[in-house]
Each structure stands twice: as structure tokens, then as C-alpha cells.
Amino acid sequence: MYKKTRINNDDALELFSGVPLLELAERANAARAAMHPDNIVTFVIDRNINYTNICVCKCKFCAYFRDKNAPDAFLMDYAVLGEKIRETIEAGGSQILIQGGLHPDLDINWYVDMVRYIKKNYKIWIHGFSPPEITHIARQSGLSLNQTVGRLIEAGLDSIPGGGAEVLSNEVRREISPRKIDADEWIAVMETAHALGMKTTATMMFRRDENPVHLLEHLLRIRDLQDKTGGFTAFIPWPFQPENTKLGGTAATAAEYLRVLAASRIILDNILNIQVSWVTQGEKIGQIGLFFGANDFGSVMMEENVVKAAGATFRMQTADIRRQIRAAGFEPKIRNMAYEIIGN
After folding, report:
1. Percentage with pLDDT > 70 across the chain
2. I want to staple 155 with a disulfide (CB 3.0 to 4.6 A). Which of 47, 112, 132, 167 is the partner?
3. Are 122 and 86 in contact (CB under 8 A)?
């Protein structure tokens, strides 16, 4: 693995404001090239499936959640779920990302049954249930995190996505998502999963006016857990999309996004893969992100609902992603969640 003298906290904080953007890009690009000298940029073909929009959390930044009795509230049945998975497989997909709201009436048995149904009927990787969902399931079921994750693994869950992290600073979380698990609980879910042999990803959703101290706190918490467990396969920073949300505000600019992306690459010296967020930034900024430290173009994402509800409308097909990667001078390869190459 790429090794370099670890940046100290004061210098890391400077990356968010004090270092000129192009100098920052040069440093992040050098770190990417050292960790990935093969000139390959990876991506995955998958689909985001939201099994319910019913959620008791009601985060201020979310435009997707509904109350249980709302006219457009839903809980997906197996017929719809199965059709979505079939379409994904037929399109060459190898993975589904399955997430939903914190439903007030579902316990571990419902989730175990759904995972078993998928594994019994389809050959596909299940990347599912973010830490807030895992914690909610555990509480609803009277189980420990270890018992909850263990039962889901036994049923066939393959990995856990890094959703629900937002910014891992409790000061921030009290403002934007006071009903959601705190930063310590998010870390606890990931540490539990890693201890059980499961790989996960990590994310960060940041606002335009986020305090760099909070961003650094987030990155250091991720880095510290990775030092301890080695369980994260990738990190994905993306900017908050304000449209239709209670939180509101202004979206981060492309330059602000690229700065956070580059800083993430430099600070997270123990996580091999950094993913661009073309879903929020568009294909061209996604392409530029490959020179700001990223080595992964994310997902074809046949379906995405949560960010779309907040105003993001960018879409790309497999051929589009390959074209963007090649135009940037890299070789595109299809991967799985474990970052194993499974296709061209």
C-alpha cells in the first residue's frame, strides 16, 4: 500500500482553505498516482433501490422521507423489488445498493426475510442498510449491533454502505439531523461490521458553509477506524443538495467540491479508493475529479431517488462513463464492491 509521512492536523486543516486549489490538485493527484500507478479508473454497474420512503428521522436535509400516512408513502413488495433486480442483472449489473427510511413497524425479521428472498432468487451482491438503519433495526428488535449485523450477514448481506454519515461531528448532527444516530453510533456500526469480517464504504455529505474543523473531524474519525480495522474499501464525499429540503441553503460550487475531494485523498492515506460524485456534480466535474485525487467513477446507478428528490438530475450510462474516463487519459474497468476487477 502507498505509504507517506502522515499529514499533521494543522496542515490538514490548511487544505480546506489555505492551499491554492491547483497546488492542492497536484498534491492529491500525486497521492492517487502513487496508490494507483496502473492508470486504471474503476466503476460499478448497480442500482439504488429504496425499499421505503417512510422514515421517523425526518432529517432537515432530506427531501425524500414521508410520514407513514402520507398519500405517497410506500413499502416495496417483492414483486416490484424482484423486477428492479432482474432489470439490473439484464443490464450487466453486479450489485444493488438497498436502503430505506427508518420505518416504525419493521424489525429484524422483515429485513432478514428480504435479504433471503433476494439471495434465493438472484445472483447479485447486496450492498445494503446504512448505519442509521442498522441501529434502528437493532433497537426495534431488542438486539445488539453485533447480533443485528450477524443475522443480516447470515441471511446474505454482503456489505454495508456508508450512508447516514453526513458529517461525523455531533455539533453538526444536532443541527441537521437531531433524531439520527450520533457520530459515535455511526462509527460503532462500522466497527462492528468490520469485526465480523464485513467490508463497508464511508461517505461524507457536506454543506457549502461547513466549518473545516468539522470536516477534518469527520476525516480523522474515518482514518482512525481504518487504522484499527482496515474495513473500508472506499470513501465518497459529496455536497448537500438543498432543493426541496427544510435545511435549504446554497449548493457547494464545483471548486469547493473539488477542494474537499482533494483534501480527502491527502488525509485518508489508508483508504485506497476515493470516488467522484458525478451524480451531484455532473460528468465533467466528475472527470476533473480524477485529477483531484479520485480513482473511481462511482456507479452507473440505474436508479437513484434520494438525491434526485433534492434537485440533482445528472444521469450517465455505462458508455458515457467509459468515454469520460478514457477522455481523461485513464483505462476504465468495471469493479465490484471489494474493488476486484470484473470487466472492461
Report:
1. 91
2. 112
3. yes
